[in-house]
Design brief:
heterotetramer, A mainly alpha, B mainly alpha, C alpha+beta, D alpha/beta, C: alpha+beta, eleven-stranded mixed beta sheet, three-stranded antiparallel beta sheet, 14 helices, globular, D: Rossmann fold, six-stranded mixed beta sheet, 19 helices, 23 strands, 32% helix, binds adenosine-5'-triphosphate, binds magnesium ion, MetI-like (chain B), ABC transporter permease (chain B)
Chain lengths: 303, 335, 547, 606
Amino acid sequence: MTELTTPGPANPPRSQWLDVWDQFKTHKGALIGGILFMVIVLAVYVGPWFWTIDPTLIDIRARNQAPSLAHPFGTDQLGRDMLARMMAGGATSVSVGITAMLLALFLGSFVGVLAGYFRRFDGPLMRLTDLFLALPLLPLLLVMMLLFREPLNAAFGPEQGIFILIVASIGITSWMPTARIVRGDVLALKEREFVLAARSIGTTNSKMITRHILPNVLSPIMVSATLGIATAIITESALSFLGLGFPPDFPTWGRLLFDATDYLQQYPERVFWPGMAISLTVLSVNYLGDGLRDALDPRIRGR
Amino acid sequence: MLTFTVRRLVLAVPTLLFISLVIFLLLELAPGDPMAQVPLTVPPEVKEKMREALGLGQPLHIRFWKWIVQFFWIEPQVLIDHYFGTGFSQGDLRVISWQTRSPVMDIVIQRIPQTLWVVGTAYVVAIIIALPIGIYSAYRQYSWFDQLGTFVSMVGFSVPPFFSGVLVIVIFSVQLGWFPSIYDTTHQVTDWDSFVVQLKQMIMPVMVLALQITAQLSRFMRASMLDNLNQDYVRTARAKGISEYMVVMVHVLRNSMIPVITVIALGIPAIFGGAIITEQVFKVNGIGQLLIGAIQANDLPMVQTLTFIFAVLIVLFNLIADVLYGVLDPRIRYD
Amino acid sequence: ERGSDGNVSIIYWQAPSILNPYLSSGTKDIESASLVIEPLGRYDETGALVPFLAESIPTIENGGVSEDLTSITWKLKEGLKWSDGSAVTSADVKFTADYCMHPEGGCAQLAKFEGVSSVDIVDDLTVKVTFSEPKPVPYGPFMGGQSPIIQAAQFADCLGPKAPECTEANFNPIGTGPFVVDEFKPNDVITMSANPNYRDPDKPAFATLTFKGGGDATAAGRAVMETGEYDYAWNLQLAPEVIAKMAEAGRGTPIAAFGTLVERIELNLTNPSPDLPEGERSTAKAPHPFLSDLKVRKALSMAIDRELLVEIGYGQAGRPTCNVVPAPELYASDNTDCIGQDIAGANALLDEAGVVDTDGDGIREKDGVPLKILYQTSTNAVRQDFQALIKQWWSEIGVETELRNISGSVFFGGDPGSPDTFQRFYADVEMYANNFDGTDPESYLAQRTCDKFPSPDTQWQGENINRYCDPAYDELVAELGRTGELEKRGEIAKKLNDMLTKDSYSMLPLVDRGRVSAHSNTLGGVILNVWDSELWNAADWYRLEGS
Amino acid sequence: MLDQSIAQIRELRVEFQTKDGPVVGVEDVSFEICPGETVCIVGESGSGKSVSSLSLMRLVEFGGGEIVNGRLLFDRRDGGETDLAKADQDLMRHIRGNEIGMIFQEPMTALNPVFTVGRQLTEGLRVHKGMSRRQAEDRALDLLRQVRIPEPERRLKQYPHELSGGMRQRVVIAMAMACEPRLLIADEPTTALDVTIQAEILALMDRLKRETGTAVMFITHDMAVVAQMADRVVVMFRGNKVEEGTVEEIFENPQHDYTRSLLAAVPKLGEMRGKANPEPMKLMGVEGQNLQPIPGTDDEILKVRNLTTRFAVKGGFFRRTVAWVHAVEDISFSLNRGQTLSLVGESGCGKSTAGRSILRLVEPMSGQIELDGVDVMALDNPALRKARLDMQMIFQDPFASLNPQMQLLDQVAEPMRNYGIATGSELHDRVATLFDRVHLPRSFMRRYPHEMSGGQRQRIAIARALALNPKLIIADEAVSALDVSVQAQVLNLMMELQADLQLSFLFISHDMAVVERVSHHVGVMYLGRIVELGPRSRVFENPQHPYTQALMKAVPIADPHKRKSERDLNFKPIPSPIHLRGYRAAPSEYREVEPGHLILTTDSGY
Ligand SMILES: Nc1ncnc2c1ncn2[C@@H]1O[C@H](COP(=O)(O)OP(=O)(O)OP(=O)(O)O)[C@@H](O)[C@H]1O
Ligand SMILES: Nc1ncnc2c1ncn2[C@@H]1O[C@H](COP(=O)(O)OP(=O)(O)OP(=O)(O)O)[C@@H](O)[C@H]1O
Ligand SMILES: [Mg+2]
Ligand SMILES: [Mg+2]
């Protein structure tokens, strides 16, 4: 005889994040990407604890050495250890990537949510977004560099100062796509009945945004986030190339790569390391983003 | 539709004015000096003289006004004169570059051909490559082709052009000697042989640029195709007994192209803006190189004009993309 | 034979933006223009004067320069023609002077005409330049690449404020040089062809010339030495090993020559401390707490290994120097005592001076002020390598160094509002390179007199960067101005040089920077000249046989 | 009978590969369809109806399904019998559209939005019949006439979004009929449509079937539709066929338990005839049901007078208001404590807007709303928020009205948190009690909406509405999206709550049968106005307004003997509610035909 009562769903109740993790695990690329990214992050931040050579230490007798036990990645034209420089550079690049992304993300989500949620902010905020889109990145960066470098240097010291500046300039010039996407999603969400339902049970606007809107736009935000890290790292390296980024004595992957392209034929490994590091990071982060998007999208997760 | 377009056009005017003011102020506020490249052997008094000759002594608002007039009133007249042989702009002061002491616009116009040749071709090539890749990747989601496409496009996305550019130069120019490493902007295409020469010198910069654009576009195309492949109308089309090729290439593609086309349209200002790094690497000397050169030399009129042209293009293509969206998608009609 | 050797191509990694040296002082502009317009005389590769448009170089001996040193009379060669076929006359020469000396013109080469009171036409081929006071070296106007003769007819309407508007003339000047401009694309490329009216009927050997600009030194070097696309590449500021590697490819040869450009460290003799009120900071009112001590300065110099600096930064294109005036021979001091590095000696010197580490933090103190140095320079890879090295050496003598670099456009920009200009010198030491124009160092040495301090009163303009002030020095400079005899001038100049360097250590010359260019192995006749335009003898270039 | 069947499905088993392993879509189904016959497949959602039909078209493969077992014998037009399960896609392409036509559920999405109707209609013709463009267009025009679309010439050049839902569905039907297929598969062709349009479409299909002799495989979950259409019925339950027979057999003598419970759950129009008060439905397999009628009270809790809500249409260069959508126009009614007032009407007539206006979720333009003595229209924002304590809403789509990212516990607790009514363990207890109230196990509290079935989700929505102990609940199509059996359960639950808690419901629905079951009073809306208002029994038994009468006629009745024919039906399309600025809507005036039974006398637009 057939059972007439409806059985409950097969899987037991469980936390949403476990679900996300389950879905994430099935995405092989994302898993590898995630692990790789973790390894890179560990290497650049924790690495210096184990590889204690000072990246700025000049050992003039050991110039331009090929990889060896003493210098696994070789040395540069002043005899500085490339491994140490790669780690120091990575710490900067990855920090720039992550912080610039966070800043862009924050700005983008903030503007996007405000514009999407509050009708009266929509027009002005979207015009603002247009304005920023129309402002060409390069001159803007340049001007910011020139304008704020000094006060920041004075307030935070030269390295922190320029770091803040670069992060801010990358962040400020790259939040617009996120804002647009988030706005679009919020506009669509606002039409969903659960928002109306929440309003009818007396949810205030701020609660509405934090409880209902934000969690539901998380997935596009996360994707922007992973893309943002990659773009920020690449933008930083492009800035170094144009001579607008960190000062030359301050290693970043972009700078190391740029400096090494002159020596492409003599010491190809010097190009290889930073080039590899940038590509790997971007790749891993992109795969991570792909996986996260799938994992965070309830439509896909629900399948 | 028409009202929408006109409305947006009219609204664009204050936006542009505001943008121009912001650009102007930003650049004016930036420290740095057009005299910085003058050798130290030139005495300061002489430098001061030169600075005055550039009109740097005047107050800000006067210069802004002057620039606005020159840009919006005189330059268009020059253009008209150029095409119709009239004499409206006779004797008017045009926007003069500090670096070359010649009208900014003339140089910009001079640079446009090579920029379009290289960056434009790259864009076209990228589109031609990216769309099929995106379509096929989506149709065969998670197949090895899709995986490979994803991987390659992400690598393409992650390699900075100053690296890939130098790499291809070392391989193809230095080691193999196939292509020139320096772009010859004076080269004229007159016959088949010279066309081959042009092709040769374009291949490397175009490929380096196209790699990046392809990477992004194909991802877009794939996502858009995926969205549409699961739609109900696809099932309806199949139920009609239409061949799979027609289903994908007619029904799905047409719908998927709508967002992609606007993305492509929004990318067009970047063509005119040039590809700064790639131009630099291959010495294409297009608009991008002009801009970075002007920035380095603190050639304010040039930087202002270029950035503003760029802003105009972005605003314009934003509008075009919106209108296009309405044209392509019958559901969206602005009124 | 003229035009028999086809095309020659030149690449400059800085692109020329104008072909009128009077409106631009950029080397790229002056040198590209030198193919088209020529001065009356040039300096050759040894720094000697050779006549170009002039019949001969006027001197006191041949009567061209007046005994009282207040005038010089130039005589043009006969039969000279502009490229448009018209004759070159003394009116053109006078016009050139009028053009540059116009009060509203903003002429970039005005300094060349300093002290000129009048330029008079004596006859069709003769002009006389009169100075308001005696000029021992009267070869400023019309001499060298910066001061070529322009055609009066072409520039007649371009005087004063109208100068920048004459785009056609500025981009395509009619000249007497071996080539004429076919097309000028600013900041990109110039195409030229042989001047049909060039004075030597057999020259130039090349029918056409391509002058490409832009990119970077690496690419330029590569294009000449590795791929062979270009025949001549200018100023390859590259790491020595990169150049060596390129030369291995066998298509081109790097060539080097030395001028007067000296990379140096300036020691601030005034106190740049931000604690001082504005107006006293980095001015004569506040002497530097420890750099005002000669022994400290000397110790800093002794700690530097200049040979290593050269090896790393310049290779073939540099040599260690202890002089601000390293050339020409007549003026160059034989001072070499700073070359060898002596850390121990420097430490001993400081100990002896009582500048010792009193609080055990590894940094010496003088009168309680720790030797912490802010070391600034412009942003440039080689300079940052230098900074890193020197910081390390100084740390070995108990001096702590903070490094800082500033974008060149700000550092050298001279903006009185910016705190970062090299003149303002809000740092303890700074590094840059400087040289003098032509072969005579008089005005260059005169920059270090007491009255040339940059200060708030002068809007921070002034050339005495390190605020060195010695009445004896000022006196000697004045004497140099009164001396016409070459031997004597040389002696005084050497003395002045030594006062600045080995006597006072107020500045630490590091490297005598030469210039490296490269030419294709098939290009003959290249003679690298650092005293004038590198392309000064392009008329003599030719294609080598068998290639 | 077997040898003349046009299609036979034998032991069909279809599986889907998902990440949790294979899912069986259809377990074991066999039936056949004869020429000229309509076979209805019924069963609740997820029972495998669509999968069976898609298998027959071999379209399941594109959705990731696989026919693992069974045969699909199809009698080709040229006489040969083919096993479609083994046919290759080339052959299938020839059969699809040509010999088997298919109509899909969602007319809104079944058409490609970027091609004109004409283009989509002619496509199949040109592929299968090798027609030229002209010929195909002529034929398309013919087809559009056959399905009785007004102005067929114009339609050809229009895009799908320019047509109404009913017209779109007609286009889809025309498309499926284009090549005169021998078998027509209709997968819930009317579920998304209004009753009036549904009636027309059903009649249309019936006529076409008769005229062309096509066999029809009709998929639906609506027993009333089955009664209208079917010759034979196949009942499916969780991937299996549980019963098969002629309509009469199935309706009059159902064998299987499931069929019986299904039939019991269907509210039949006219069932409540003669009863003054609503009473819960008798359900199969539920013990100890309280089937007492619910009388309610006479104590007025909600009074609405002259409520008008309009939406501005902006346009022109300055984006000024150029016109108004008159969504709700001058409606008045009142509702008593413990009673239910239903608003019925076609899609777009303003039911939802009326409901939302009362809660002031959309701002009304004018009118009075009085809730238990409180003048809702006069409240400022904080006071309004307070007032919403007394009135709550349940929305149509149980999935859309729950936040997919929140646990059920939090969703139900949210209103109490918002008003700070309870915290900590008290809150938890109250939520648990609410779960009990709506008959959900407490263990569900930590689940997410996507882990629940549709009926369970709607219970959560009800629990959430109950959390604040409201006096009034506005149920906006609260059961429309649910399967009949689930719908019956939810309706019963609502009535139970009403009886226990003296709740008042404003019940919004387009389903006349449901409305008849639950309401004390009924208001029929048309184009923003209430055209007829009165006690349920009077309005249903004695409809006076012509629109109400037409509506009643359109409702399919779950009785195979009461079929309707196309001729009975004659609906005008609803006129546009958009009027230019400056248009003055006339006030609504009513005539009392019986005590409390009002009829609109002024122009309603019908
Ligand atoms: N693409 C798919 N992937 C996985 N499972 C599927 C897929 N399509 C259908 N199913 C499963 O097959 C079963 C039958 O689905 P089917 O669509 O035939 O139901 P139905 O009877 O048509 O329901 P409804 O009335 O809701 O349309 C369901 O359990 C469903 O979950
Ligand atoms: N936010 C809005 N802006 C503009 N017009 C609207 C808005 N909401 C509803 N309308 C219009 O108001 C009219 C009534 O809509 P409403 O949603 O109340 O109808 P309904 O009777 O609930 O229909 P359904 O049964 O389809 O839900 C429709 O014409 C609709 O297009
Ligand atoms: Mg179905
Ligand atoms: Mg509704």
